[in-house]
Design goal:
Length: 118
């Protein structure tokens, strides 16, 4: 099985789901940057993850962090809803970036079981 990596340091939180890589840039994240518990964004990413996602994110020391630590659990639970990125863009500082892995069409067809030549 492909190895999944997380990157957690003072500058970034980076983790992988089944088909995505999610990165939070703490240098641009309002509460992390300003060390405030009452940011203008209202921790929109964490609220969105509770509402539309799977509680992957939580607040710790004025930062959005992973509530689920085990990489295989993140892959199992994360529903790849994109709500954290969208809500940070709308209410926060736009510091969440999600890269979506796109399969080439031929591989996608194979993965979803479309017979060759159809
Ligand atoms: S919404 Fe954006 S700015 Fe606000 S806590 Fe989340 S990542 Fe940081
Ligand atoms: S994509 Fe959805 S489930 Fe995954 S971290 Fe963002 S809000 Fe949570």
């Amino acid at each position: 099985m492909e190895e999944r990596k997380e990157r957690i340091d003072n500058d970034y939180l980076e983790f992988e789901t089944r088909k995505m890589k999610i990165t939070i840039d703490y240098k641009k994240c309002e509460p992390a940057r300003d060390n405030t518990s009452n940011p203008r964004c209202g921790f929109a990413c964490v609220k969105a993850c509770r509402l539309y996602g799977r509680n992957i994110l939580r607040i710790e020391k004025n930062k959005p962090v992973l509530a689920v630590k085990e990489p295989s659990e993140i892959i199992r639970l994360d529903n790849e809803c994109l709500a954290c990125e969208y809500n940070c863009e709308m209410q926060g500082t736009g510091c969440i970036k999600i890269e979506v892995q796109m399969l080439p069409l031929i591989e996608y067809r194979r993965e979803v079981g479309v017979p060759e030549g159809v």
